[in-house]
């Protein structure tokens, strides 16, 4: 695993009892560990195969990252527990590159959980090679599923399993949700967004949409999360003349985020596809907000329309369209009954189709079926 950089921890992190081993983030930080691993791995039967694969990859990715992945794979192969029989990796870009080399060195079977950015920012050649090497891959949106199936020589080895929500951590909210309609400057409608301040979240689009709302509509916006673009977004809010109506909280833990869902009137996330292909799949925060019967406004990209039907359990607009997003905001800010209807339908969708026990059972079945094939 990579060492964590977030300062906030969620309760589930404290429940982990297994020992955690971190690979060297950069090879120069732990040179002796890397050299020991490479020296030991040269004796392994698959090391030559892994080297051949590495050199065949280099012309397509002549970067420091490619060397780093091979060095990390050597460390993983060298330190691999003698009684470990399976390698499962999350994300089909860098982590899967490390796992693919490790598989060649050790012969250990491996599988993949692919998500969003890792799929859409990887080249098809690299994806196809990993799909051929792994026993199976699973991903969490229909769009990603179809893309990976089209690249796989064995379509039956690519599976779809939506991320479910642990509903014990997001129980039904029985408390009151006031019928604010934006007419009261003293008690404005509360708009919430949760997510890293990065380009694909479209927070700049949301800010421009908020700035274009009529002056007679009173609102307050809260953003939860850190991110590289936070300073630029605060500057944009100031330029748009709305900085005094925005609260930037920084990162929060899960319990704090849940409390904010319950205090908000609506949730907004103006997701986009960036120039390098990066995008969200189905953002977990949308499902979390929906679990609290909170009306969600977002865009019709990636896996978001797989959860929301616009006008039935949320509102979706085209991406990169502040005017359309502003109209969706206006409609929901000024109509508490619409918010109640959309929010209730969204919560029903979560609790009937996105319980994490379903996704756990699906993954368990995949592992058990493949395990039975292993000699």
UniProtKB/TrEMBL annotation:
Ranges annotated as spanning the membrane: none
SUPFAM superfamilies, alphabetized: UDP-Glycosyltransferase/glycogen phosphorylase
Glycosyl transferase family domain segment(s): 187-348
Keywords tagged on the record: Glycosyltransferase, Transferase
Keyword Glycosyltransferase on entry: yes
InterPro entries the record matches: Glyco_trans_1
GO molecular function annotations of the record: glycosyltransferase activity
Lineage top rank: taxon: Bacteria
PANTHER family named in the record: D-INOSITOL 3-PHOSPHATE GLYCOSYLTRANSFERASE, GLYCOSYLTRANSFERASE
Name recorded for this polypeptide: Colanic acid biosynthesis glycosyltransferase WcaL
């Amino acid at each position: 695993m990579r060492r964590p950089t977030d300062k906030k921890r969620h309760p589930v992190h404290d429940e982990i009892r297994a020992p955690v081993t971190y690979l060297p983030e950069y090879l120069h930080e732990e040179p002796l560990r890397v050299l020991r691993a490479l020296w030991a791995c040269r004796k392994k039967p698959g090391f030559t195969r892994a080297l051949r694969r590495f050199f065949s990859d280099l012309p397509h990715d002549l970067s420091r990252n490619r060397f780093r992945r091979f060095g990390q794979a050597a460390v993983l192969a060298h330190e691999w527990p003698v009684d470990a029989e399976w390698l499962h990796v999350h994300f089909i870009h860098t982590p899967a590159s490390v796992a693919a080399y490790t598989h060649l060195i050790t012969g250990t079977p491996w599988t993949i959980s692919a998500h969003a950015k890792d799929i859409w920012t990887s080249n098809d050649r690299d994806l196809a090679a990993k799909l051929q090497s792994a026993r199976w891959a699973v991903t969490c949106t229909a769009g990603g599923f179809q893309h990976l199936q089209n690249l796989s020589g064995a379509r039956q080895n690519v599976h779809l399993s939506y991320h479910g929500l642990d509903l014990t951590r997001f129980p039904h909210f029985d408390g009151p949700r006031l019928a604010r309609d934006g007419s009261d400057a003293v008690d404005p409608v509360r708009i919430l967004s949760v997510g890293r301040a990065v380009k694909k979240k479209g927070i700049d689009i949301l800010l421009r949409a908020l700035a274009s709302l009529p002056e007679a509509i009173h609102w307050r916006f809260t953003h939860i999360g850190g991110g590289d673009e936070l300073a630029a977004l605060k500057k944009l809010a100031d330029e748009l003349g709305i900085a005094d109506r925005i609260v930037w909280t920084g990162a929060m833990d899960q319990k704090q985020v849940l409390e904010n869902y319950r205090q908000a009137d609506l949730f907004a996330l103006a997701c986009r596809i960036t120039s390098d292909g990066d995008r969200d799949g189905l953002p977990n925060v949308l499902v979390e907000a929906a679990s609290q019967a909170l009306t969600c406004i977002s865009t019709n990209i990636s896996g978001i329309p797989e959860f929301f039907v616009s006008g039935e359990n949320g509102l979706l607009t085209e991406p990169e369209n502040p005017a359309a997003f502003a109209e969706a905001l206006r409609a929901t800010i000024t109509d508490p009954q619409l918010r109640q209807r959309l929010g209730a339908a969204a919560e029903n969708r979560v609790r009937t189709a996105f319980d994490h026990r379903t996704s756990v059972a699906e993954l368990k079945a995949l592992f058990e079926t493949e395990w039975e094939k292993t000699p």
